[in-house]
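Q: I have 107 residues here and want to know how they pack in 3D. Can you give me a structure?
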Amino acid sequence: MMGAYGYYVVNEDEYLHVVVIVIHILISNIYLLNYLIAILSTVYEEMSDLGDFAYKSSKYQYIERYQIAMEDEWGYEELVVHPPPINYLTGLIWFSIFKDNMMLRAS
């Protein structure tokens, strides 16, 4: 379809033959490019729909997981919202970590 055949013409119609082959190759390339664009747009639409569904289902699972904790009758829902206190205490350790590293580099 892309003109992979012989071009040898013996008689006086050689120029006409070349013109017809060039037109055939140009039209074939346009059709093939149009076909490629159609395939890519179809795949993009399908993947877009699947991506939207995956995003919404993941968001629903995330909300459902933390909704259970928010309905706690003993008041533990605040533990889900705020970080544990050990995270605040690690800030005090940072100074000693950097101080030890500076001492190791100096020696």
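Q: Anything worth noting?
A: The chain has a mean pLDDT of 76. The radius of gyration is 35 Å.
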